[in-house]
Structures are given as C-alpha cells and as structure tokens.
Write a sequence for this structure.
C-alpha cells in the first residue's frame, strides 16, 4: 500500500511549497487535474525507498462562500481520499480562527493527523509552537518548507505509521494485469463487463492492494488475466445502485499496478485534457498501453473521419500504442483489444539479452556515429537489460550525458524496431565510465 497524504490548511501557509518539496524526486508525475478536481493536485514522492502519494488542496480559509466553498469541498474530499492528513499551520501568523475550524473538522474524522508548523524560520520555536498545541491534535512538527528543513523528520514520523506490508500478503494475481482507466462516463463499466465476457469464467474476486479497486482473475481462451476494476462494477449489487465515485487516487494506483493500461476515451467528445493527463501518467509510469475510443457506434461518418485525424495529430508522440475504435455497448471491436493487450504485454516483458542489445547498439553506432564533443567522439560501448515493463536498456559509454536528444531518439527507434517493442514505453539509461 502506498500511503496517500493530504495537505490541508489555510491558503498561504505553504502547502504548495511543501507539495513541491515532497514530490521533487518525481515531479514529472505531478498531474494537475484542473477541471475535474478543481484545484486538487496529485503527486508522488519517495523517501528512504518508501513511496507515497500527496494531494495538494486549495486551502480552507474559514470564510467560504462561492468559489471558496468549492475549494473547501475539494479539501474535504482530499481528506476523505487520504490515509493521513498533514495539517499545515503558519508559525508567523500564529493560531487563527480558520485553523481552529479546520482542527475541529479533523477531530471528527478518524484519520491520523500530523500538525506541521511551517515557516518556523526566524521564530523562537518554543514560543511559536505553543499556541498550536491548544488544537489538541498531538505532536507538532516544525518545518521551513522553503528550505526543506524539518521535512524529513516529519515525513519519517508519518510513514512510520504505515509499515510496509509483508510481501505476498495477498495471493499474487495471475496472468496479465489489465487496468481499464478513463474519465467518468466514458464506458469503463460497460467495457469491463464486455472484457469479462457474457459467460465469464471468474475464478475469484479479491480485494486488491489498490485502494478500493477489485482484482478480478479470469480465464479467456486458456490464458489468465487479472482485471483491475476501478469502475467498481463488481461491487454493485444491482444495476440501480449508483456508480462509485470516480477516484483519481484509485485510477493512478491502478495504472501503477497494471501491466497493461487500456485508456478509454469517449469518441463523441474526442480527446480532452483529462485523457491526456491519464495518458501522461501511464507513460511516466512506464506501463504498456492500448488506447480505445468508445461510443464509436453513435458517430456520423464525417465525425469519425474528424476524430481519427484529430487523434493522429495529437497522439503523434506515442505512435507505439494501438488505437481501437470500439463500441463497448454493442461489443464491436472489443475482441481485438485482447490482441493489442497481448502484444503490448509480450513487448513489455520480453526477455532481452546483453549480447543482442550490444549488437544492436554497435550496428546503430556504425550506421550513424554519435557526434564529437569538444574534440572527442562520444563512445557507446555495450548495453544490457535493466528491467521489464517497461523495458529498460542500460547503455554504457563515455560522455553519454552529452548525447543530443535526437541521437537518443534514434537509438530508441532502433531498439523499438529490433525488439519489436510495440505497445510499451521503453527507457534508455546511460552510464558513463568517465
Ligand atoms: P499555499 O497557499 O498554502 O499553497 O502556500 P504557498 O506554498 O503558496 O506559500 C505561500 C507563501 O509562503 C509563499 O510566498 C512561500 O514562499 C512562503 N513560504 C512557504 N513556506 C515557507 C517557510 O517555511 N518559511 C517562510 N518564511 N516562507 C514560506
Ligand atoms: P463509466 O463511468 O466509465 O464506468 O461508464 P459506464 O460504463 O457506466 O457508461 C456510461 C454511459 O455510456 C452509460 O449510459 C452507457 O450505456 C454508455 N455507453 C457505454 N459504452 C457505450 C458505447 O459503446 N456506445 C454508446 N452509445 N454508449 C455507451
């Protein structure tokens, strides 16, 4: 379980500053889900080998009206979505009525709460911290987020509340792990039902390590699959029951935990910002990817043409992923999804040998030499596998840090072709011996 931490507090106490500080190691993953979540921001961080997720919120001012009350609503939702709350207060401003209001709310929730007394710089901590104890929320952690001071100690205390789970605590899911992700209402539940088949052979359902998602093991044509059900269809006891609330945390965790992500979009709406965020997260996480445009049944021919062109244009940068135009409702095109899922999984988990990777590298270099840097040619000597799903290829040489992007792209294309890496991101890592 990756603990989820919500940053809560008045505006201006330093939440964004702390957020950036906590997520710096992986800030490429920080996604700003504007629109969908108003001002909630999700990021991932790591400290001492432990991963965690952070949710930043707009802030609660205590005088909510109009847009402010929406922001407060977002903060309250972030609290519900989290495993622990980091409640930020401002040492320079002292205890305010808004802080007391937030404290009152937090005391009613049954969430581990950590009071973070930020902006302790330039104050006498003994005096500055004293008023905050009145809130009755326990130990207080002084920090200076702008200088990362006190942050590690606070984080260690927080994470120690969430011991790492014993490995293999739950039975390992079998076969390819597939996550169907997408915005609310694009047709995830409908597709999940289709993928499982009319006469589905569900071996058993299992509460997963992913928050609230259910892992469904099943068999299709003799192959094993595990579907990570973020849509919550298996939980609905009857069709009337409302769909569970869409949860970004759940979605991001399902992506992280899957082998292959099926990103479902609504063809009648085309690609929207939130689709691109999910796409970005999938690629950053290195997951194999299949894109499906759903609700293809309802479209006029001219509109279909338009959607296809638009997609080609906007998705040029991920030309490695298959795109399917499907109707989950009628089942059209759904069977072909499995072909792409299988192919992407094979590519993502293919065994690579040092010999082969090195030979491809040497051929590529012979074909097209790396440039000279300050009179010395960049040398690339050998390559070896560094991992799967995504495939990681580690390349050794000299001055590799100077390789131009275009050359790195050239190597990536060459490896993609040589290894038939279709449907998966690939990572090249460079090591320099000098
Ligand atoms: P948010 O509204 O809670 O997200 O607050 P921000 O992170 O935007 O910070 C508000 C202001 O406080 C910014 O000008 C920050 O540079 C400043 N700030 C944040 N942390 C500290 C700190 O530890 N010490 C001091 N002196 N200023 C800080
Ligand atoms: P989820 O929120 O992503 O799980 O979406 P649902 O599976 O609940 O579907 C949302 C709505 O879209 C429902 O009314 C479905 O009947 C409808 N829908 C799903 N797939 C299709 C499709 O392929 N074509 C059309 N026209 N409607 C669909």
């Amino acid at each position: 379980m990756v603990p989820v931490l919500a940053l809560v507090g008045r505006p201006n106490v330093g939440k964004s500053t702390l957020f950036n500080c906590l997520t710096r190691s992986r800030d490429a993953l920080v996604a700003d889900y504007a629109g969908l979540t108003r001002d909630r921001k999700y990021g991932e961080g790591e400290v001492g080998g432990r991963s965690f997720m952070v949710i930043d919120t707009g802030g609660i001012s205590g005088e909510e009206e109009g847009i402010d009350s929406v922001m407060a609503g977002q903060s309250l939702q972030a609290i519900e979505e989290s495993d622990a709350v980091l409640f930020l207060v401002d040492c320079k401003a002292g205890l305010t009525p808004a802080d007391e209001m937030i404290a009152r709310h937090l005391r009613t929730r049954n969430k581990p709460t950590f009071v973070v007394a930020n902006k302790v710089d330039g104050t006498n901590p003994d005096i500055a911290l004293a008023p905050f104890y009145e809130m009755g929320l326990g130990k207080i952690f002084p920090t200076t987020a702008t200088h990362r001071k006190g942050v590690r100690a606070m984080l260690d205390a927080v994470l120690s509340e969430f011991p790492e789970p014993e490995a293999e605590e739950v039975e390992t899911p079998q076969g390819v792990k597939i996550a169907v992700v997408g915005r609310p209402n694009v047709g995830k539940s409908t597709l999940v039902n289709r993928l499982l088949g009319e006469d589905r052979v569900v071996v058993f359902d299992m509460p997963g390590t992913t928050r609230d998602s259910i892992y469904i093991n099943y068999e299709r044509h003799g192959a094993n699959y595990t579907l990570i059900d973020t849509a919550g269809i298996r939980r609905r006891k009857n069709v009337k029951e409302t769909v569970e609330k869409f949860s970004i945390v759940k979605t991001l965790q399902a992506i992280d935990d899957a082998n292959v992500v099926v990103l479902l979009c609504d063809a009648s709406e085309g690609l929207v910002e939130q689709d691109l965020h999910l796409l970005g997260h999938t690629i950053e996480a290195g997951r194999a990817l299949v894109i499906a445009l759903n609700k293809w049944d309802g479209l006029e021919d001219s509109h279909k043409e338009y959607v296809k062109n638009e997609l080609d244009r906007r998705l040029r940068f991920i030309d490695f992923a298959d795109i399917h135009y499907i109707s989950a409702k009628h089942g059209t095109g759904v069977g072909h999804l499995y072909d792409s899922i299988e192919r992407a999984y094979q590519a993502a988990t293919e065994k690579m040998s040092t010999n082969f990777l090195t030979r491809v590298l040497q051929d590529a270099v012979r074909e097209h030499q790396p440039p000279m840097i300050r009179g010395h040619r960049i040398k690339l000597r050998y390559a070896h596998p560094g991992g799967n799903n995504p495939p990681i290829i580690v390349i050794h040489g000299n001055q590799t840090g100077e390789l131009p992007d275009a050359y790195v792209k050239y190597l990536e294309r060459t490896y993609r072709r040589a290894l038939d890496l279709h449907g998966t991101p690939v990572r090249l890592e460079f090591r320099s011996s000098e």
Summary: Residues 176-349 form a domain with the Rossmann fold fold (CATH 3.40.50.300). The radius of gyration is 24 Å. Residues 62 and 98 are 5 Å apart (CA to CA). The chain has twelve helices and 19 strands.
